[in-house]
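Bench notes, afternoon.
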Amino acid sequence: MNKERLMGIDFGMKHIGVALSDELLITATGFETVNWNGVDDTWAVNRIAQIVKEKNITGIILGRPLRTDGTSSHTEEAANSFGQKIEAATGIKPVLKDERYTTVLASNFMKEVGRSAKKQRPVIDQVAAEIILQDYLETLRR
């Protein structure tokens, strides 16, 4: 019997952090940073779709990059477009989740565990995706 899992996505204009839940939907773990050129997201969409298929993902939580005052941003428009492409490629409509400050929280966490700024870059987007997904998992349990 296949177990279900959720995917968290921290969308950025150059890096897309991906985190996956465990099969019990309790914890989120960073999985991969998908790099793209900020112009053509075809490769990134295809990679996400491949992960969805390989890992039996049944739900996607997409970070919604709002400005700090809660208003829409250019990056949010790109994230919404990316979400629509993910839905077309996977058949899964992403749930949008406010992601304000997740990268700051991820950076602070990594500093606390002794990871320098230089060593953070390859995984910071994954950690931000973990925060987005873990927060969502916790709302499911409430």
